[in-house]
């Protein structure tokens, strides 16, 4: 390979996404390029030759612009006497610079017999084959003295400039048109047209993001603009359980209604602020420590922000469409931001540091409430939630089952690890399916005589002495009665009758 091409290959790396594979141009490909350059030369001559008619110039301009990828491609300003003038667009070159620099015309000649062809490369980003060919270009013009000048001789001038032409063609697609990509001074890297915006975005995207999108959403390594338009129009996106750290690319997915970022390393939710159609967001078990940025997600219906070390949930205060909110396993003390979220049906703040349920008083649509392991002082607000089906108040300090009396729809109740002395307020709760009263102060199960639908019952670590009504629970699948005072014979009788029930006792 000629020395100038070796040097030029190094210069190309920043502007052309070429693959390592390089192969020599075939004679047929060289002939294609020569034909393109001959047509280029013919039209430049028609535009700039002395005494050219307007019709000739216009015809030359029209045909010349059919040879280029776009009229805005950048070409070397070889008309300027400066050592390294800035490149200009092809349109500016033929419309402005040629007539301005050479008002009397100029004869341009490409010395194609001296053409030196570089190898064919593939620009994987722009998805085409291209090559660089170095061709000297000769410019010849003359100057005639004005009529009132003492000089009588016409002066002849000429200049030869070494140029590099970058030509694209379809090596694997004979129907693809051969076109000029750029023209630069030899030894100077070409300036290509900017990539389409979405392709530029993809090119700059981190390797972790590309890997996830390629694997989960079948995106090619070098996608087309139309492919990326389809990707960014997704309604559902999951990057869960991936090594992604930067949430910035999510700002592009403006059509999303469902987004799962759980178990990733992202730490900042502000890039999500423009995802105004988002209805379902999961950021559980990430590095997020603040909900700042989600306050604009006014259409959010479901939010999972569990296991985040959150101390403040104020950004959710205005998300009045929320129906399902989970911020369990955090460090939240103040529930005031929840006061206006009257559409909530499911609320989980297990394992936080709240001490009062007062701010929840208006949430009368709640069907599921979990606040286990919060040391709450007053439980009277529970009576405001007659639609509760699920209630988890495990280890909260609850010392009476009385609030349950006014919750007739309860099906799943976990009130274990509390100093509750009796289950009598549950006597009329016929819909109970799953009940945990383990580690309480109850001594009998008589209140469960109407609980015919129970499937799971845990009264372990209590002083209950007999199974009593449990013998009649034919649908029971799981029974935990270890560390109680129930006699072994009583347990054996139950086990013999309920062979399909998993029973734990010792």
Binned, the helix content reads 10-25%
What overall form do the CA principal axes indicate? rod-shaped
Written as H for each helix and E for each strand, in order along the chain, the element string is HHHEEHEEEEEEHHHEEEEEEEEEEEEHE
Structural class: alpha/beta
As laid out across the biggest beta sheet, the strand order is 9-10-11-12-13-14-15-16-17-18-19-20-21
Q: Show unreliable segments.
A: 1-15
State the end-to-end CA separation. Answer: 85 Å
- Average pLDDT, rounded to a whole number, is 91
Largest sheet: 13 strands, parallel
Provide the CATH architecture of the domain at 3-194.
Roll
Q: Which band does the percent of strand residues land in? A: 15-25%
DSSP strand count: 21
What Rg do the Cα atoms give? 39 Å
The CATH class designation of the domain at 3-194 is Alpha Beta
Architecture blueprint of SSEs:
Blueprint: H1 3-12, H2 27-48, H3 54-65, E1 74-75, E2 88-89, H4 90-101, E3 107-110, E4 116-117, E5 121-123, E6 128-143, E7 155-169, E8 179-185, H5 197-204, H6 207-217, H7 225-232, E9 236-238, E10 258-260, E11 280-282, E12 302-304, E13 324-326, E14 346-348, E15 368-370, E16 390-392, E17 412-414, E18 434-436, E19 456-458, E20 478-480, H8 488-497, E21 502-504
Parallel strand pairs: 9-10, 10-11, 11-12, 12-13, 13-14, 14-15, 15-16, 16-17, 17-18, 18-19, 19-20, 20-21
Antiparallel strand pairs: 1-2, 3-6, 4-6, 5-6, 6-7, 7-8
Helix pairs in contact: 2-3
